Amino acid sequence: MAMLSYKPGDLIVSSTPFAYVVDPLNGAGRVCDYCFKRCESLKPCARCRVAHYCNKLCEASALSEHVPECCYFEEVFPYIPDVTVRLLTRIVHKLQKERMKDCKEMVQGDMRTLEEMESHSNDIMNDAVMLPKFHASWATVKYILGEENVPPLLDGVEIFGKMVINRFCITDSDLKPVGQGLYIGASIFDHSCDPDAAYVFEGTRLTVRATRSLNVNSVREIYICYVDKLLLKEDRIAALQRQYYFTCNCVFCKEDARDPFTEKWSGLTECVRNLQLELDKAESKADVERIASRCREILECQCKELPSNDVAKVEALLLGFQCGTRLATNAEAIGLALQVMEIMRRVP
């Protein structure tokens, strides 16, 4: 087989989701439930008023996926099931018509199937936190689709596991989470805290591009990062074990490895992250301006003497950049982005 060669920025894969859904907490009413584009004049589904669409074409295109949940939404409104239940329902609904081994996508000459996706079903069955979540989700799926239309319980654990282990959080152009999706092609990439590639979203389409020069025999030798790279080593290791049931052995996670980022004041990091949560929910310009002002204060005062790779400082710069893009203070946003790029360039 010929070697696969990539330069930084080269496209490795462009993948559309097998199943996807808007997150009721973050994306509902803000993006179209079909194309995930932001629109000022989204129209709600006339029946359930939960799903929103930017035009009649998107509404018609989403119909086959939305019909099973629509009746349920109408029945339980204003309660809306969480994103896990909605995504699981859509996957099970699609698997009524297709076998797992027939759900596949070609990735650079390598065939990836839903059947071969890792599920960690045994780990989930022994997880005191995740197992109750499965049972609660599965009960709702059975109610929505009808018990006669769902597979046996153990098959349900397998499907649930494939979903929670392989799903992606879909983000908008501001990197704000708006939904979740299961991408068969993109699930082929394993994790490393020192990744070879990064992924972004254009609507619901996921694209993976090289971040360094690569020469590999197979796309399976290329790694992406599953967690926030700004997490400190012990937090990354804990998150990967908790969410994906494995221990990372990359160069950044070895026992004697030096953390690429530092943290002088955990309280300051928490403060910045709380501001980020506020920004994610902010609707008015006044709220964004207030957060931007507080962010400037943090950068000018508390972060002034911190090293460039301090977690709080980097996250404050990213927060300021997001505020700048939302307020259209472009010069400020570009300046902050350049600082972040320079820091990330120097980090090993």
Automatic annotation (TrEMBL):
> For this UniProt entry, which segments traverse the membrane?
none
Q: Please indicate which superkingdom the organism of origin belongs to.
A: Eukaryota
Annotated GO molecular function terms are: zinc ion binding
Listed SUPFAM superfamilies:
SET domain
Could you list this entry's UniProt keywords, alphabetically sorted: Metal-binding, Zinc, Zinc-finger
Question: Would you name any one GO CC term?
Answer: nucleus
Domain named MYND-type is located at 32-70
Determine if Calcium is one of this entry's keywords: no
The UniProt entry, under Pfam families, shows: zf-MYND (PF01753)
Protein name listed in UniProt: MYND-type domain-containing protein
